[in-house]
């Protein structure tokens, strides 16, 4: 299973559970809806932050060259889109039979609500991946070769001919 699909399905399930909890809490405490919804939004963002942080650490540990690392931004973008579309589609379907669950019409669920879910997961994921990579990179040795195998490209390096060899003194 691909990385983005697994993350998307897990967060789609989290979206459904949180929306069910939101519906029950807002129904029970309607005057507190202004606090309930943002708080439950944190319960969606926090697992994304934790998972993406470990993704970033693992990726930085596996590849010290930043140019050759995986594109985790796309992984988290597609995961957020899957979670938003699938999770909100399931919530809309449940809302047909369970009126306590607040849902809009199908179009608004698949556009506005899904876009918010995707954006929340994407931003949390990208920020956490960056922090995870940084936490590994700050402990890296001061000089890390950025590209392995550059010696093989000496024939295309225009400055290779004018650089002094290992046994020649450097010219002032």
From TrEMBL:
The chain crosses the membrane at residues 33-54, 75-101, 113-136. Keywords: Membrane, Transmembrane, Transmembrane helix. The keyword Oxidoreductase does not apply. The keyword Lipid biosynthesis does not apply. Residues 145-172 are annotated as: Disordered. InterPro entries: B-4DMT-like (IPR047958). This is MFS transporter.
């Amino acid at each position: 299973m691909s990385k983005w699909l697994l993350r998307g399905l897990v967060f789609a399930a989290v979206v459904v559970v949180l929306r069910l909890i939101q519906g029950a809490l807002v129904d029970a405490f309607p005057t507190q809806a202004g606090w309930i919804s943002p708080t439950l939004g944190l319960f969606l963002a926090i697992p994304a932050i934790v998972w993406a942080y470990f993704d970033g650490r693992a990726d930085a540990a596996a590849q010290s060259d930043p140019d050759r690392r995986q594109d985790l931004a796309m992984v988290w973008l597609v995961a957020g889109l899957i979670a938003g579309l699938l999770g909100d589609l399931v919530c809309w379907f449940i809302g047909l039979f369970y009126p306590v669950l607040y849902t809009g019409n199908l179009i608004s669920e698949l556009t506005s609500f899904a876009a918010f879910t995707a954006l929340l997961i994407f931003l949390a994921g990208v920020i956490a991946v960056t922090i995870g990579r940084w936490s590994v990179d700050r402990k890296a040795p001061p000089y890390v070769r950025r590209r392995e195998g550059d010696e093989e490209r000496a024939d295309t390096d225009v400055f290779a001919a004018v650089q002094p060899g290992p046994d020649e003194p450097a010219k002032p």
